[in-house]
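Database export, one record per block. Field names are fixed; values are copied verbatim from the stored entry.
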Amino acid sequence: MTKQDIVTDLAPTPVAAYSQAVKVGTTLYLAGQGGFDAKTGQLVGEDIRDQTRQTLQNLKYVIEAAGGSMNDFVTVRVFISEHGEFPGMNEVYGEFFDKPYPARTTVSAGLGPGMKVEIDGIAVLPK
């Protein structure tokens, strides 16, 4: 088994010992992304919609760096800071994914300071 580290400057640089994504064969495992702007290192704002849009854009940058697209996701996990934020997250989520949607799990979780959402996923890339 060969693991390939996937890195792009368009998404935030990891701040700990993890990869933005790891590719094994045609399977891509994407680390959780938050609503951080890669250029500034700051959250894009306090609104769940803005943070979700940036989070998904960061995932898009990473999957594209691996040669894939958002249509290649087979599953995603969404972590939101408060269950009441679900409608706003879900609204923006629909802007990034088409049917058939990836399988999805959404949970309320404690996130970093100011973070309202974090999303990770698994994708199967074209050969």
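Remark 1: Residues 3-124 form a domain with the 60s Ribosomal Protein L30; Chain: A; fold (CATH 3.30.1330.40).
Remark 2: The longest strand covers residues 27-34.
End of record.
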